[in-house]
Amino acid sequence: MWKSEGMNYGRMDRSRHFHRECGHGIHRRRHFFTKEERIQMLEEYKVWLEKEKQGVEEKIEELKKTL
User: Fold this and answer.
1) pLDDT for 20-35, tens place per residue?
2) What span, in angstroms and rounded, lies between the C-alpha atoms of 59 and 27?
3) pLDDT at position 21, please?
4) Which residues of the chain register pLDDT less than 70?
5) How many CB atoms lie within 10 A of CB 2?
């Protein structure tokens, strides 16, 4: 979700379930974030939601024109 918008953070609620294996063993995402990091993630998420809302509104207008 967020990666497509250039964000470097995964969803905070999924971070504890994510892991991957590579040549150096298993690497996991961080579990704990600073307040500043959480604020930044939420601000970026807000921007993503605003863009999504704008896209939905544009699609609704486009569909209304075809009625």
Assistant:
1) 555 566 778 888 999 9
2) 40
3) 54
4) 1-25
5) 14
Q: What is the pLDDT of residue 35?
A: 97
CA distance 19 to 28: 5
Q: Is 2 helix (H, G, I), strand (E, B) or coil?
A: coil
> Measured between alpha carbons, how far is 65 from 8 in angstroms, rounded to an integer?
38
Task: Report the C-alpha gap between 42 and 61 in whole angstroms.
Answer: 29
d(CA 48, CA 64): 24
Provide the token pair at 10: 């995964």
Terminal-residue alpha carbon distance, the chain: 32
CA angle 56, 59, 60 (to 5 degrees): 85
